[in-house]
Amino acid sequence: MSTLEYILLLAFIPVFIVALYVYKRDVYKKEPIWELLKAFGAGMLSAATVLIINALLHLSGVNLESVVFIKAYVGAGFIEECTKFAFLYWLFWRNSNFDERFDGIVYAVFVSMGFAFVENVLYIYDGMENVREVAHARAIFAVPAHALFAIAMGYGMGLARFSNRASGWLLAGGLFSAIIIHGTYDFLLMYADLLADVNESFSAFIMLLFYVFVILMWIAGFKRMRSLNEEDKWRL
């Protein structure tokens, strides 16, 4: 197996597992495979778009990495989630296959997994000296986290798709939730890393908050999926 094949395999396996799990949770009416592949491809394009946006900002003299809060909430949360949302909305908001509330979560997660796949490839390639550690960390934390950000976004879109009056607010709420969750996730990790050489005790405390936050994200994610499945059941 070549190095490139090895990197692609390590990058793809956790993405595939998460995507398959969410696909299986869509219990009433499965989405067409071609639409899911389209969503995954859109996620890859959204990752490329974020790279272009960041490059243009850098060329313009805008530095989003100088302050941890800005890097986390603007560089990661705002830019990445807004870009994923743009592709998701463009391709699926009026899509005839989007005929259940849970579909909002399915399509959002598949877009997010396309994004996570590209991000995995870049991180694993950059960390080839510790490839297993990087790949394991991405599989355990980063890939599921991207899915949980997407669940928050897709939950809002799923509700909005079948709401006549509050669709705009529900869409905005889903996007805002994804931005805040993503930003907080990155901020806690970045801040703990920043403090590691300065104050180990406080850095450990921030990491504890990070693990608690991750658990809360999982609880909220499962609750949102269960909620939309329940609502779709009553529409059968």
Describe this structure in words.
This protein has 236 residues and is mainly alpha-helical. It has seven helices and no strands. It has helices at residues 3-25, 33-59, 68-92, 102-126, 131-161, 167-195, 200-233. Helix 2 (33-59) crosses helix 4. The chain is globular, with a radius of gyration of 18 Å.
**Distance linking N and C termini:** 48 Å
Q: Assess the beta-strand content as a share of residues.
A: under 5%
SS content category: mainly alpha
* Main β-sheet description: none
**What is the number of beta strands?**
0
Share of helix, binned? over 70%
Overall morphology: globular
The Rg value, from CA coordinates, equals 18 Å
Task: Tell me the series of helices and strands, N- to C-terminal.
Answer: HHHHHHH
Mean pLDDT: 92
What is the tally of helical segments?
7
Tell me briefly what this model is.
By secondary structure, the protein is an all-alpha fold. Helix content is 82%, strand content 0%. The protein has seven helices and no strands.
